[in-house]
Amino acid sequence: MSRRRVFGIGAAGVTAVGAGAIAARSLPQEPPVANAFSNSGPFPFYGEHQAGIVTPAQDRLHFVAFDVTTDKRAELADLLQEWTAAAARLTQGKEAGAFGAVGGAAEAAPDDTGEALGLPASGLTLTIGFGASLFDERFGLAGKRPAALLDLPKFPGEQLIPEISGGDICVQACAHDPQVAVHAIRNLARIGFGRVSVRWSQLGFGRTSSTSRAQVTPRNLMGFKDGTDNMKLEDAALLRDQLWAAPQDGAAWMAGGSYLVTRKIRMTIETWDRTSLREQEDIFGRDKGEGAPVGKKNEFDPVDLAAMKPDAHVRLAHPSSNGGAHLLRRGYNYVDGSDGLGRLDAGLFFIAYQRDPREQFVPVQMSLARNDSLNEYIKHVSSGLFACPPGVRDAGDYWGRTLFA
């Protein structure tokens, strides 16, 4: 699908669970076409911004956070160049290395692990980000840590697990085929052996956000349409103001990039499933079927916040309740088996991009953590904040080059 085609498509939205749900305007819109982006073709890898941010959200996710195990700056820079070359190939449906899974010498390990042989690109995008811990004394980068890459405050009620939080580097792989997404992360981990190690990773399915008006609004595991008012790739002025970092923000190397917040939000779905429909709808501030706001008939009717309960999720998360702050969300459902106590370990892997988390995610999540009636049914168990640099301009560029320049 061409860039012109992507930017010319028309109408949908998204609002809901966890820290977030936020966006521009609720305008009357024509119904979008279901699965408008279920094509298996490739998205461009090179560009001003990284793919996988405003790219129409794919159906599957494999997200990974790495710890850097080398203490040599040159080795880290070399790895980023190797990763970029592999990512450029993988996102176009090619194998990770020049000789692929079977084209090299039989006595040597293959250049690709091979489990995606015969599969198309499946809309794969790979997006990289750098955590605050990368900006310590190891690589001489302390002076380049952006002020916006802060240590997140402790929010009321969160129960974070350190082993599945943070990380030096993250990579987000999104695709329409889970095997393609897993294959990409597996090969980046293989290439990074001896220089990075996997800290934690998360699989996701069933996107819980739409990032284009051509996409229908999806549902989260609580059964509600999620993120009706999400920012969209068609909102150019809003994205410029709320999503993309600018040179005047204080970290020149981040210009054209964005800040990524991840939160693993476990849902106590067994308790939720025994809650009355009326209470469920009061908690969200929307009806469960159509997704219409309180007192309205259609999903995209203008929201009347005053008609909602004071602790309704939509009311607390809405931009007008947060000084105009918006987030671009592209989260995913997850089910990680059971907890050994007869309950599913399930919920939302929340992903949100923004220009400055100090002005966007932090105040929104603080309001939700203190007042949201949904908190009775959710628990934040992991957290991450990463600075995602601008896009790779051409084959001579690489992920993070502006940081190391």
Automatic annotation (TrEMBL):
Subcellular location, record wording: Cell envelope
**InterPro entries reported for this sequence:** Dimeric_a/b-barrel, Dyp_perox_C, Dyp_perox_N, Dyp_peroxidase, EfeB/EfeN
Query: Which residues are in the Dyp-type peroxidase N-terminal domain?
Result: 50-205
Assigned keywords, A-Z: Heme, Iron, Metal-binding, Oxidoreductase, Peroxidase, Signal
One Pfam family it belongs to: Dyp_perox_C
Enzyme class, top EC level, equals oxidoreductase
Please list the residue ranges annotated as the Dyp-type peroxidase C-terminal domain.
Answer: 217-392
Question: Which PROSITE patterns has this protein been placed in?
Answer: DYP_PEROXIDASE (PS51404)
Q: How is the cofactor bound?
A: Binds 1 heme b (iron(II)-protoporphyrin IX) group non-covalently per subunit.
Q: Which cofactors are named for this entry?
A: heme b
Statement: the UniProt record of this protein carries the keyword rRNA-binding: no
EC numbers on record? 1.11.1.-
| Job description of the protein | Involved in the recovery of exogenous heme iron. Extracts iron from heme while preserving the protoporphyrin ring intact.
NCBIfam families linked: Dyp_perox_fam (TIGR01413), tat_substr_1 (TIGR01412)
The Swiss-Prot or TrEMBL record describes its family as follows: Belongs to the DyP-type peroxidase family.
Query: What is this protein's record name?
Result: Deferrochelatase
Tell me which species this is from: Nonomuraea insulae
